[in-house]
Amino acid sequence: MDFKYRNVILNYIKENKEASIHDIVELCSITIPTARKYLNELSNENLISFKRGKAVITSSFYYSNFSRKINENQDLKKQIGEYASSFISNNKTIFIGGGSTSFYILENILNYKNITIVTNSVPIITFVIQHPEINLIVIGGKWNDRTESFESNDIKQLEDLYPDISFVGAMGIDINRGVTQNTQMQQQTEFIMFEKSKESFILADSTKFNIAYPWTVFPIEKISNIITDNKFDDKDIEVWNNIGISIFKYK
Description:
This is DeoR family transcriptional regulator. GO terms for molecular function: DNA-binding transcription factor activity. Keywords: Transcription, Transcription regulation. This protein is about 35% helix and about 25% strand. The chain is α/β, with parallel strands linked by helices. It has a 7-stranded parallel beta sheet with strand order 6-5-4-9-12-14-15, with helices on both faces. Strand 14 (about 225-230), helix 11 and strand 15 (about 245-250) form a beta-alpha-beta unit. Helix 2 (about 20-30) packs across helix 3 (about 30-45). The longest helix is centred in the first third of the chain and has 14 residues, at about 5-15.
């Protein structure tokens, strides 16, 4: 499903309590078969219930941290996703971690050929399986409701995986501490993939900088590249460069 339709449809159903196929046809200027296809896809993700031609929001939509965050600072996240995708090329293996910012890379991923996506994120898995031209490697493990992703304690399943590029989101990023978060939850899968990739990028919109939560995910010395949006202050780029971190700012 095109991203421009996904959020429009979900927001419409949320605001109007329900929607018919004809409502979605008029809302998005699409055909009836396409509207039915989109509603079935959202139903398969358990974000809506779609029965007898009527769609309503499910409780999973409201309780899903990912579904809530996907709409926060959406314009900034789209900028980062677009810029991040410019580092991808044909015939590459790419690790994309869980997180709403990372998800926006997928808007542009279909432009490349013979791409392999490695991920532990269920929203990303759900998108990729709808596009059989993309190769998919799923990292399993313990389910995490907050990130809608799997965390693996089985290091052996990661031993032979060496992505060309990895993209990992950030809850907060501090110039002294690195990437931080507000829970003690381990993100071992993302850390290992980040370390083993030829190139690794932290994705952080400008609202995430200078925020230090109690728990460190990626120490500052492990970070080389950060992709951010066009609201990031140019004066701060040199500060980060001085400690050996490249800031890639969307223009």
